[in-house]
Design the sequence.
C-alpha cells in the first residue's frame, strides 16, 4: 500500500484551533505539540474568539494535555512508555499482547528487530488526574501517541 505523507503543521493548526473553539472542551489531548506549536495554536484559538488552555503536562512530554483552568484543577500527572517496562524511557517490547512503542518490522515485512534488540520508534502516554472545580468530581485524562 502507498503511504501518505503527513499533513504539515502549517495546515493542521488552523483546523485544530477551529475544532477546539467549536467544541469548547474542558480538556484536550494533542499529539506532538511542542512549546512553539502550542503558542501558535493558542494564537489561532484566540484569533477565532476562543480562550487558550493551560498545559497540565511538562514541556518535554510529547503528548500534552491542555485544560480549561476556570473549570478544572490538575492534581497529579505522569507519563509512561507503551512497553512491558512502562516507566523505563525508550523501553521496547516486540510481539507483546498490547500496543508497543517499537518497530519490529520494515514496511516490506522483513524482520529488523528482535525482542532482545528492538527498534524504538516512540509511543508514550501522558496522564493527568483532574478535579472539576464546580463539584469536586475527579477523573483521569490520558493522551497517547503511537507511531
Sequence:
Amino acid at each position: 500500500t502507498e503511504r501518505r505523507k503527513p499533513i504539515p503543521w502549517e495546515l493542521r493548526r488552523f483546523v485544530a484551533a477551529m475544532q477546539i473553539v467549536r467544541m469548547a472542551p474542558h480538556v484536550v489531548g494533542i499529539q506532538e505539540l511542542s512549546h512553539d506549536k502550542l503558542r501558535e495554536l493558542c494564537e489561532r484559538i484566540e484569533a477565532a474568539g476562543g480562550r487558550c488552555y493551560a498545559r497540565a503536562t511538562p514541556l518535554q512530554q510529547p503528548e500534552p494535555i491542555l485544560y480549561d483552568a476556570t473549570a478544572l484543577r490538575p492534581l497529579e500527572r505522569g507519563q509512561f512508555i507503551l512497553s512491558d517496562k512502562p516507566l523505563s524511557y525508550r523501553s521496547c517490547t516486540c510481539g507483546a499482547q498490547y500496543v508497543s512503542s517499537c518497530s519490529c518490522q520494515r514496511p516490506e515485512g522483513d524482520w529488523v528487530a528482535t525482542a532482545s534488540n528492538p527498534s524504538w520508534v516512540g509511543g508514550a502516554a501522558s496522564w493527568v488526574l483532574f478535579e472539576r472545580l464546580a463539584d469536586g468530581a475527579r477523573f483521569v485524562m490520558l493522551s497517547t501517541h503511537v507511531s
Summary: The chain has a mean pLDDT of 76. Residues 23 and 102 are 34 Å apart (CA to CA). The longest strand covers residues 72-81.
